Amino acid sequence: MTLKAKGSLYGIIAAVSYGTNPLGALYLFKAGLNVDSVIFYRYILAAAMLALLMKIKKIPFGISYKELGIIGGLGVLFATSSITLYMSFLYMDAGIASTLLFVYPIMVAVIMAIFFHERITLSAVLSIALALSGIALLYKGGDGATLNGTGVLLVMLSSLSYALYIVIVNRSGIVMSSIKFSFFVLLFCVLSTVVHSAFSESYRLQPLTTPYMWFFALILALFPTVISLVTMTLAVHAIGSTPTAVLGALEPVTAVAIGIMVFGESFTLRLACGIVLILAAVILIVAGKSLRPVHLTHFIAKTISLRRNQREKEC
């Protein structure tokens, strides 16, 4: 596989994994845990998994002060994104919140263009337009109900934090194992969550008291955390911030699929059209370079030439 193909695959895995957030979070909310408790166990269990993996792979835990400072900031951003996203679940359906979160690719593209003078390609613009059209179809309810303002604001804060996280990962210049990188990010996520939980009695950390709670906490630690963080880091380094962010279009598709299969939500024509548009955006960003006119012209000319040679041989 080429570097771009690997990066695209990593980006798809990261997006699908991150889209499973509602699966564990909603069950733990129903069991009585508050937002900070759900996030705390998600991060600390994920950090334990990565620490074990580092031991098995004999990856050293040493890190410089400069790297620690950058990763510390990334941990705060990632924790902020998770806390605000999970809080939004309390004000709107998790599927709607997960689809609204997808404005972060636009934020990434704008940040990269303004601060780092990255050229936004035509394929990226078309991909974002297609994805946003699909998102609009996914989150717009059939009853025409107005979205909760507090919930929308929380999702926008989550989206901005996640966009900044992706950009900094891309521009930080840190060279280390993605497993080690994700482990230290999660350590700072744990610290950030503990600090946040001290601000209010309603945020106080609660214990996991049943096997049911532990199971869904482990689901949250593995899929939208360990797998998503590691593969997202690999994707950003392989194909860049903007393509990785656009591939995140698969996150709301995953959230909708979970809503249908797990929570019994209906599958409508609107949902089908939204998913088709999002998948088209993903295909376009993955195959963007090969879709340029010069590449298409070369492909057509080569095909005609092969057919002509075949006919001459038959004659």
Task: Write structural notes for this entry.
- By secondary structure, the protein is mostly helical.
- The chain has one domain.
- The protein is 77% helix and 0% strand.
- It has 14 helices and no strands.
- The chain has helices at residues 3-18, 21-30, 35-56, 65-88, 94-100, 104-116, 122-139, 149-171, 178-197, 211-239, 241-247, 250-261, 269-286, 293-314.
- α1 packs across α12.
- The longest helix is centred in the C-terminal third of the chain and has 29 residues, at 211-239.
- It is globular and about 50 Å long.
- 49% of the residues are buried.
- Mean pLDDT is 84; it is low at 293-304.
Strand content: under 5%
Overall pLDDT score: 84
Helix proportion: over 70%
Total discrete domains: 1
How many H/I helices?
Answer: 14
Taken in chain order, the helices and strands follow as: HHHHHHHHHHHHHH
Main pleated sheet: none
Total count of strands: 0
What is the radius of gyration? 21 Å
Low-confidence stretches: 293-304
CA-to-CA gap between the ends? 39 Å
The secondary-structure class comes to mainly alpha
In one word, what is the shape? globular
